Amino acid sequence: MISRQLMAASTRPIILAILAGGEDYGYSLIQKVRAGSGGALEWTDGMLYPVLQRMEMDGLIASCWRGGGDSRPRRYYRMTDRGRKELAAELAGWKTVSRALARFSELVPAQG
Amino acid sequence: MFDLEKAISEWKARLRVHEILEDGLAADLETQLRDSIDAVKKEGASDEDAFAKAEARLGPLEAIADEYRKNRLAALDRRRPFRASRFFPSLAGNYLKTAWRKARREKAYAAINLAGLAVGLACGILTTLYVRHELSYDRYHARKDRIVRLVTGVRGGAYQAIAKVPGPWGLTALKEIPEIERAVRFVLMNEILVGRGEVRSYERGGLYADASVFEVFSFPLLRGDPATALAHPGTVVITESFARKFFGGADALGASLTFDSKTDYLITGVMRDVPAESHFRFDFLVSMETYANPMREDWRWNQFYTYLLLREGASPGAVAAKFPALLGRHMAAADAAGYATSFQKLTDIHLRSHLFREIEPNSDIANVIIFSAVAFLILAIAGINFMNLTTARALARAKEVGVRKAVGASRSQLARQFLGESLLMSAAAFAVALGLAALLLPVFRPLAGRSLALFGPSQTGFLAAMAGLSLAVGIAAGAYPAFVLSSFRPSEALRGRARGLRGDLMRKGLVVFQFAASAFLLVATGIVSDQLRFVQGRRLGFDIGHLIVVPIRDDKMRAGFEAAKRELMSVPGVVSASASGNLPGGSDWGVPYEAEGIAPDRLPPMRQLLVDEDFVATYRFELAAGRSFALDHPTDATAAVMINEEAARQLAWADPLGRTMAVPVLKHGPSPVIGVIKDFHFRSLHEKIGPIMLLTATPEMMTVISLRIRADGAPATLAGLERKWRELDPAHPFTYSFLDEGFARLYDRERRTGTLLLSVAGLAVFVACLGLFGLAAYAARKRTKEIGIRKTVGASTRSIVALLSGDFTRLVAIGYLVAVPAVVWLMSRWLQGFAYRRAIGIGPFAAAGIAVLAAGWLAVGFQSVRAARANPTDALRYE
């Protein structure tokens, strides 16, 4: 089980990482997270949208409504330059933390 | 049967409960819900199950709304806090509109405000123009800082110092004092007939000048070589306009002009006209080499205006200190000791030099100061009016202030609005003032006695400065009202209870000041004109009426002046005729003389008139003792003198008759005093009557013929004289002047001061009355209700007029009383300038008092009567 804090902290880099592969819309993002984490990361669908709004406020992503015709209109998000920089910084941070944790975990005595 | 769409719309209704979930966000969530439902349905679920599952996955709307709320707070937090901008451009239009409406609704106020300020500014503009002109004298010379004029005091002279020195002084100083780089001397030329072919005219604008004149002064030559132009005898440099007069457009260089109908002078240069800002001006310069006077090398004959160009860095004081020694080397020690030489800075001469025999009459720094003070006074009065009226009107604008404040205007914004209004007003006033100044300039020019120009390329800076001054007045005058207006409290202002203006005392003080200034100027005007009347009405000691003076121009006529006199006497209407070398009125001489039994160093300074034996009779002098010159005493022609009573007194001769006096310079050996003339004014009344002697002159000294003519038929007499003159001297046109006009000119300066004071006093009264008029109108309006009630309970119109006028009358009276001691003090000092003066009388004070009160009543009365006669019902319905 992943803690709420960890979930919250990881949301933004994960969204940015997905958008690095091209623009996308809300439902599809949730599906990709679920698929990518093998179900380990289970978000409450509705909570994604305030996060996306906040990221837009911070200038990391931009959005626009598109579609119509055969499919229903959807809001598509894409990454901004600022988002790209943020992603690089976040990834570097997470890698550092993860490497450090890996080393420290060796010190933890195994439990039955 | 489950209806999916119905379920979704019910879900949307639940969603809308949360205000934060705006349309865009709601659409996001609905899309998500529908995508989610579609996906679940694909797995084979029913509509009902799919909806339930998707809704569950979406999560509770409450929590989502919470997240959005956090975002909103963060966004609010991040925005810069609200701050009112300093200036709302959209309000500027409103300010202008309000100001314009205000001005239109209260035309009288606006007009008074504008007119008053404009008059004040016009005064300021004209005066500044004059002052600037006065201060700019002789500053156009490139070497002005190194040029000094050599002047000297003469022991025993009837003056403190004379502006001229003997000819050799300057040249010798140039040779012997190394700090002197150049010296140039000028000698005044008598009026002379200049001709070229048919064009002939008498010219009095000539000077003899050394060749170095163009090296010392900056007089640019348009034609000719400045180095050699005046190097040779018989050469002349003329100014542009002089050249135009005689040559039209043709080139004058190399041509010649005929002087005195006999000598041709070669024109070796044409120079630009001498600027008006010069303490001496001329039309032409004749080379000093041409000047043939036996006295020109005399070390004691003060006839040369001498200017020295000092070397760079030389101290004028140190150079001047070398002169006593220089004089000592070239003159007898006793003579040299009689002189006290000094230098005058070139740029000081015009305003600060008042020596004997100035090259041209100078102005006085006192004039500049008086002019500036008067202009400042009027400007101050106008500014005060502006301030007063604007403040008084503040009450009417209390509501506007209240509304503006209530909708959020800050105090500083309001202050800026009102300041802006007053700036606008002062800008408009400046425009009006410029027009007014341009209109008044022709009137002002003769008053200031100067040629002035308002517009021109050199005046841009000046006009900009004046515009700046107007704005400064606008700010100064607008600051106080702006401060008062913006201080109203909105709640009170809106309830119509704007604080009674506390500036009441200040406003009253200002009215007092204005009327004090007006009264001051009026009394001063009265005293000046009284004194002028006194001066011109005073018996001079001889009969000055109907005396005409004709200059003798022809040497043959001079030699035979007795015959000429006889011929002129034959013209009907001529009573008597006399030839003389000089005249009463300032042209008396002061050459050394000797008196029996008195040591030379004890002699009082004595003036001389050179006359013939008909002089005393023609001028109708009164004799105190002895007899007048007479043809039947043959010795009178060479050996007789007359003196005045003052001379007898100063010589301490109880019985002067028979005592002898001598004037060697005039070839008069010791001659007995044959008569004593009662004291008469031979100078202006500025000077005390001094000792003077009359002596008979030889024909070559005669310069004028004085003719007494009968009062009736003067034009015919003059025509007859002109005909006769043409027979006697066909070469020279007949010119004449009346002696009393010459005497009147001695008081030109005072007359100008008088006229100036009168116009300024008029302006001051006008502006002050404008202000009073406005204030009275304001006061009457403020008391409308009171007047209505008074009338209803039986007050008469007259009592109400008295009530309203009373206050102002008191202020005007106080102003008048304040002015009295100041004007008495100042005008007593002015009168000190006259040796003969009238005591300051009650007349000017009474006249000024009546004038000020009348003007004040006129200004207040109109308003009071209007207010008092209004129908009381209208008054009570007011507000």
Inertia-based shape of chain A: elongated
How many DSSP helices of chain B? 30
Q: What are the low-pLDDT stretches of chain B, counting only 5+ consecutive residues below 50?
A: none
Write out the strand line-up for the largest beta sheet of chain A, numbering strands in chain order.
1-3-2
Number of strands of chain B: 24
* Strand content bin of chain A: 15-25%
Rg of chain B, rounded, reads 43 Å
Mean pLDDT of chain A: 87
Main sheet characteristics of chain A: 3 strands, antiparallel
Number of strands of chain A: 3
CATH architectural type of chain A: Orthogonal Bundle
What does this structure look like?
- The complex is a heterodimer of chains A (112) and B (879).
- Chain A has 112 residues and is α+β, with helices and mostly antiparallel strands.
- Chain A has four helices and three strands.
- Chain A has a single domain (4-105), classed as Winged helix-like DNA-binding domain superfamily/Winged helix DNA-binding domain (Arc Repressor Mutant, subunit A, Orthogonal Bundle), CATH 1.10.10.
- A three-stranded antiparallel beta sheet of chain A has the order 1-3-2.
- In chain A, strand 2 and strand 3 form a beta hairpin.
- Chain A is elongated.
- The model of chain A has no long low-confidence stretch (mean pLDDT 87).
- With 879 residues, chain B is an alpha+beta fold.
- Chain B has four domains: 4-78; 144-362, no CATH class; 366-534 and 748-877, no CATH class; 554-731, no CATH class.
- Chain B contains 30 helices and 24 strands.
- In chain B, strands 1, 2, 3, 4, 5, 6, 7, 8, 9, 10, 11, 12 and 13 form a 13-stranded mixed beta sheet that branches. In chain B, strands 16, 17, 18, 19, 20, 21 and 22 form a seven-stranded mixed beta sheet that branches. Chain B has a four-stranded antiparallel beta sheet with strand order 15-23-14-24.
- In chain B, helix 6 packs antiparallel against helix 14, helix 6 (107-135) crosses helix 16 (411-448) and helix 28 (797-831) runs antiparallel to helix 29.
- The two termini of chain B are 77 Å apart.
- Chain A binds chain B through residues 25-27, 30-31, 44-51, 53-54, 57, 72-75, and chain B through 25, 27-29, 31-32, 34-36, 39, 54, 57-61, 63-64, 67-68, 70-71, 74-75.
